[in-house]
Amino acid sequence: MLTSIKTNSFAGNKGKELGMMYFRVAIVLFGAQLLMGLIAAIQFLAPGFLFELFDFSVARMVHINALVVWMLYAMIGSVYFMLSDETGHEGVGLGLGKLAFWVLTAAITVVVLVYIFIQVGSGSEATIWFINEGREYIEAPRWADIGIVVVILVFYWNVFATYMKGQKTGIMTVMVANLLALAGLYLAGMFFTDNISMDQFWWWWVIHLWVEATWEVFVGTLAAYALIKIIGAKREIVEMWLWIEVLMLFGSGILGLGHHYFWIGTPEYWWEIGALFSALEPVPLVAMFVHVLYDWGKEQGIAKGKGETGSVITNAPAMAWIVTNAFGNFLGAGIWGFFHTLPQVNIYTHGSQFTAAHGHLAFFGAYATILIGMMYMGIQYAYGAKRLPSTFKSKMAIFLITFGVVGMTVALTIAGYEQVLVERAELGAGWNAFFTAQELPWFVQAMVWRAIMGVVTLAGFVYLVWDLLTIGKVAKAAQTA
Amino acid sequence: MFEPFTDVVPSFFGWLNQGPLTLTLFLHTIIILPMIWIYFDEKKKLNKK
Amino acid sequence: MANENVSVWTSIPFWRRSAAWVTGFATILLIWLTFDTLGQISMGTDADLKNGVKKRVPAPTVINYHIDYKMDAKRGHEVPVIGEKQLFFGKEWSEKEAAELLHLGKLTSQAKNCMNCHTLLGNGAYYAPDLTKAWLDPAWQKGGPLQAMTGKNTVEEAMAEFLQHPSQYPTHARMMPDLGITAEEAKGLVAFLKHMSSIDTNGFPRNFSKTVEQFKTGGTNAH
Predict the structure, then answer these.
(1) Which of A282, A328, A342, C2 has CB 3.0 to 4.6 Å from A334, enough for a Cys bridge?
(2) How many Å apart are CA B39 and CA C13, to the nearest integer?
(3) Using alpha carbons only, what angle is made at residue A137 by residues A134 and A142, rounded to the nearest 5 degrees?
């Protein structure tokens, strides 16, 4: 990972260099996310921990913001990385893109420092502009919002202008159109209103239409690119699948937004729209899983038919993460989402640890996995390795992180189940109902296991960073030997 | 099957929401149906080639 | 007609056109639905309240009324019920004053990052109680433990006192931190909470009541 950008084997390819720069920041922020999560998990067990110094609200805010930002960094990095491969053009305006990277990174550093050291402000517009907006996931203060929009415009111009000058593959067409929607949606989260129902209505436009529509299509696009690169899948097949995925993801995901409009003051007709459209959201995720395994099996079979021995996979850790993505997306976003997407169920589960369980497995399964896979692809090309076999550390990383996140999810699901039955169904949701449910042993035990599994995840992260720092050298040494 | 309107404010979508699944089946149908036309149109194009 | 057997199902143009159609049309439907919903969730007016016109999100002056949350047999779930006039912090608030107070409260709720511990309308973090109907919580009413611990005589004064000095009134080992909320900001927050409790949330949270008898007779624990 830390191979010098000036001397690595794609030195001079500005797009790929820029991609690697984004990956580096992403992995640092991923680490910050895990640390903050650990603090918040400890606070569930020992509420006095850092009380009135670094409260749960602060740890949790940095936890989810680091999550969103590291994913956006890794996504931008991935696009810059694939840009020249897909378009056959070296890239337009990448010098400005590099400047935008530094501006964005500086801005995010300031935002995080303000979150950590200033934390909250007075009830005035100045707080919304300079400290935080207090809206889950998009807390970034208004000045940073505007900065982010400017930087994203530079990024989009890089991608769009390169696309227009280069060849227009199906993958790149989907990418360019989808990125426009993804960037545009951010604007829906940039205003203030006294009406909390209106506030949450537009807030969900950003959050839902990102993670359950445009981000999912983005993942489909990355998987298509990666399959061609890693196992030599046929472009026609991959691109046909990609269009089917776009159809199904947007067909279910756009109106699936309705499942956030059950209880926020919005009309009753959203019950049906939200329930039935979002119930279809897992379908494309099954399709993506089948598609990855099918192509892998097919390419391996063709190679075998030609009498070749060995695997068709040229980048084993990346492929492992992409297969984990295909299944994790279906399990975390699909199954865990479907658990509580029907209004008859959701009226009891809404705003409970069920949501947290789904959130953990879905963000990991759908996004973290494939973005880590893209980082491994970055390493492979940076070191000019024809093949990148897994090391012991790669295997430990993927095993511990996956095991840890699944463990946290199971623990949170149990906690959510208990909370739903006791706090919601039995006691009817008040202040006392909440704390009664939080004190029951089965809830507390689940929270203990969540913290333990969080530590397991962190251990896996240590292996991941260690591996990213060393695997390239190992592969290159093996190649020259 | 058809239940009295129970929403607070009447609206077109509220009116379509006349009982279990009526609204969502309507929306799914109008989204999917035109694909049949796209299918036959593409078939014609492919056959011409 | 040489290619009779060619399959449309494996044709990229077919899927591309279908994807474009479905995406485009779903987007149009969403925009149409959005306009419809925005009309229904925009805030009502003071006149609506006076004339008994039900709005999903009432005007800020709803803080001048008694609010309850009762089972509605026709809709099959609880709905907010706006009742008789009731003083709020010992006075009746004019349209302008109420709007300013709600504005301060909503700003403060964001500035103090309420949502990263609590849930509002069920959205947020799960470290502290849901605040959707907090105004109606029996624990804050006369005789309830939360009102009693603050030594105040009304729900709004008890809540405002707690918000200004939360760590003086621990209700659980997990305490609310002191966020430097001023007396004015606390009033605003309570107005924000009272207004939120009057929003028609289609029956969320369900069963905001404790006993079967209360539930069957359509009563709730809310007062």
Answers:
(1) A282
(2) 10
(3) 55
> In whole angstroms, what is the distance from residue A136 CA to residue A65 CA?
9
Residue from the list C16, C26, C204 with its beta carbon closest to the beta carbon of A350: C204
Provide the shortest C-alpha distance from residue C113 to chain A (in Å). 5
Q: Shortest Cα distance from C186 to chain A (angstroms)? A: 10
**A1, A469 Cβ separation under 8 angstroms:** yes
Q: Nearest residue of B to residue C74 by CA position?
A: B6
- To the nearest whole angstrom, how far is the Cα of C40 from the nearest Cα of chain A? 7
Are B42 and C25 in contact (CB < 8 Å)? no
Q: Which residues contact residue C19 at a Cβ distance below 8 angstroms, ignoring those fewer than 6 apart?
A: A243, A244, A246, A247, A250
Three-class SS state of C80: strand
Number of H helices, E strands in chain A: 19, 0
**Residue listed under structure tokens 């925005």:** C38
Q: Hey, is the C-beta of C22 within 8 angstroms of any chain B C-beta?
A: yes
Backbone angles phi and psi of A375, in degrees to 5: -65, -40
* CA–CA distance, C175 with C186 (Å, rounded to integer): 17
- How many separate helices (H) and strands (E) can be counted in chain C? 7, 4
Separation of alpha carbons A256 and A345, rounded Å: 16
CA distance A399 to A76: 26
Look at residues C194, C165, C185, C186 and name the one whose alpha carbon lies nearest to residue C177.
C165
Tokens of C46: 């003071």
Q: Collect all residues with Cβ–Cβ distance below 8 Å to A147 and sequence separation of at least 6.
A: A103, A104, A107
- Predicted local distance difference test score (pLDDT) of residue C214: 57
Digit-coded pLDDT (tens) for A98-138: 999 999 999 999 999 999 999 999 999 999 999 999 999 99
Distance CA A211, CA C155 (A): 40
Q: Are strands C123-124 and C119-120 parallel, antiparallel or unpaired?
A: antiparallel
Count of CB atoms situated within 10 Å of the CB of A271: 24
Half-sphere CA count of C144, side-chain side, radius 13 A:
24
Q: If interface means Cβ-Cβ distance under 8 Å, which residues of chain A face chain B?
A: 251, 255, 267-269, 272-273, 275-277
DSSP code string of A220-251: HHHHHHHHHHHH---HHHHHHHHHHHHHHHHH
The residue assigned the tokens 């909390």 is A196
Half-sphere exposure of C19 toward its Cβ, with a 13 Å CA cutoff? 25
- Sequence-distant (≥ 6) Cβ neighbours of residue A234 within 8 angstroms: none
Q: What is the pTM of this model?
A: 0.94
Q: What is the pLDDT of residues C27-80, one digit of tens each?
A: 999 999 999 999 999 999 999 999 988 899 999 999 999 999 988 888 888 999
Chain A residues within 8 A of B13 when measuring between CB atoms: 267, 269
Three-state DSSP state, C81? strand
- Pairwise CA distance, residues C220 & C201, whole Å: 16
List C123's β-bridge partners, or say none. Answer: C120
